[in-house]
Amino acid sequence: MTTQNKKVEFSNENKNLNPKDFLNSLENFPFVESYQELGFTLKSLCKVTQTALVMDSSYPNLSVHKSWDIYNILNLIHSLIPHSEWELLDKLNKMA
Description:
Layout: H1 3-14, H2 35-58, H3 67-80, H4 83-95
Helix pairs in contact: 2-3
């Protein structure tokens, strides 16, 4: 079997994929309107957390947050990651 035939078989096998079976993270977050907004929010939360960690090590006397604050932000970031969408993205990447 040639590489080209394998690619066709994979495409035919997955041509009936319904993205709605995978894209369900936004349903859990009514305050987020799109995956792009979710991505920007995650990026912002990461930057804030990085800044807080640098602040702790560089200026420990000026930090007004506690370790639990950083933990809670990281926990929020983790809960916002669209894990169920990764499988769809992998399949789409393989099909391309």
